[in-house]
Write a structure and sequence with these properties.
- This protein has 286 residues and is α/β, with parallel strands linked by helices.
- It folds into 2 domains: 29-115, Rossmann fold (3-Layer(aba) Sandwich), CATH 3.40.50.10860; 140-264, 3-Layer(aba) Sandwich (Rossmann fold), CATH 3.40.50.
- It has helices spanning 7-27, 43-59, 74-86, 105-109, 123-131, 140-151, 171-180, 194-203, 247-250, 264-284; strands at 3-4, 33-39, 62-68, 92-95, 160-164, 184-188, 206-209, 227-230, 234-235, 241-242, 256-257.
- It has a 6-stranded parallel beta sheet with strand order 1-11-8-7-5-6, sandwiched between helices. The chain has a 3-stranded parallel beta sheet with strand order 3-2-4, sandwiched between helices. Strands 9-10 form a two-stranded antiparallel ribbon.
- The relative contact order is 0.18.
Length: 286
């Protein structure tokens, strides 16, 4: 039976460290604040938003919600981003992706002020991830995966790491961050041949799933004694939240595994708060 990695322990440690930083900011007259910009009502976005607001309350970070309709025009979306860019009271902005089809996502994301890009969505922040520099902030979920590995003392040096998914939100940055830690990384995606997909999944020491497909990763795609980090946030046939991994099928053979909900997501929100505080500290030079 696997060790079930509950993200709460990792997130609480990060939050405990953050509380002292919040007090220093407040003593300097700075109230750290995050704006959450959401387009539409996707279940995964709503779940993350609720979790982020709870984490912000625990940490002492103010939150402003900006909610737009799914059919919003690009012009209107850009207007809202511009308002947040110019608002001196906002230190970080979280924009949920993917954005609707009528939106040029890459263009829109690059309109966010770099200093407020606390989830690594601008090209400058992504360049920092891919070049291994400290420029900007990396995407929170990818960094949360690394934080979990660090907390549990899992060294990726020489380990075979399989990342299932190649999005700029999670898959690609997680792969780059794993390589920076000297892991040997294989990235799988929807066009990977079935036999290659299965082989890479079964042979990995560490598996990070970010496919966005409910319970698609079953025992047939996994090996023995692996560390499995399930980043997926999906709805199952009963409308309940679940991950990319068939937890019931995978858990008996794994060494360690994160559940959904209660795994990577809680750490992601703690990382988000860490980035907001860092942005506030940089602005206020605290």
């Amino acid at each position: 039976m696997a060790i079930v990695i509950k993200g709460k322990e990792v997130a609480d440690r990060l939050t405990e460290e953050a509380l002292a930083r919040v007090e220093r900011l407040k003593s300097s007259g700075i109230q750290p604040a995050l704006a959450i910009l959401r387009v539409g009502n996707k279940p995964g976005d709503l779940a993350y938003e609720r979790a982020a607001m709870k984490r912000a309350e625990k940490t002492g970070v103010d939150v402003r919600q900006v909610v737009l309709e799914e059919d919003v025009s690009q012009e209107k979306l850009l207007e809202e981003i511009d308002k947040l860019n110019r608002d001196e009271s906002i230190h970080g902005v979280l924009i949920f992706r993917p954005l609707p089809e009528q939106i040029d996502e890459a263009f829109v994301c690059d309109q966010l002020a770099p200093e407020k890009d606390v989830d690594g969505i601008t090209s400058g922040s992504m360049a920092g991830v891919f070049m291994g520099t400290e420029q900007g902030f990396p995407p929170c979920t990818a960094e949360a995966c690394m934080a979990i590995l660090d907390y549990y003392g899992i060294d990726l040096k020489g380990k075979k790491v399989t990342v299932m998914g190649r999005s700029l939100v999670i898959g690609k940055p997680a792969a780059m961050m794993a390589m920076k830690r000297n892991g040997t990384v294989t990235v799988l995606h929807s066009r990977t041949r079935e036999d290659d997909f299965r082989r890479a999944g079964q042979n990995a020491d560490v598996v990070i799933t970010a496919m966005g497909r409910a319970k698609m990763v079953g025992p047939d795609l996994l090996g023995e004694d692996q560390v499995i980090l399930d980043v997926g946030i999906n709805e199952d046939e009963n409308g309940d939240l679940c991950g990319d991994v068939d937890f019931a099928g995978a858990e008996p053979n794994a060494a360690m595994i994160t559940p959904v909900p209660g795994g990577v997501g809680s750490v992601t929100t703690a990382i988000l708060m860490d980035h907001v505080l860092a942005a506030a500290e940089k602005k206020g030079r605290v």
